[in-house]
Fold this protein.
Amino acid sequence: MRKDAKQYMLSVVETIIKKYNLSEIESYRLVKYSFLYDSLVKFPDETFHDDIETNADIIYGDYISENLLKM
């Protein structure tokens, strides 16, 4: 992964930590196994145009949906 893509990913992780009060490890895991990671690897230049907070919201929403389905 490119250095700038890694920084973008870490910004999303920090946003999840601050906005949703998750641990750094859990936030990193959410991003690592989300659509965003693959997108940053395959299409970094296009992904940089997406809003960091919006991506954090989508990833967290997917996480919540997944947990609700397990109940």
Residues 3 and 9 are 10 Å apart (CA to CA). The mean pLDDT is 92. Residues 52-70 form the longest helix (19 residues).
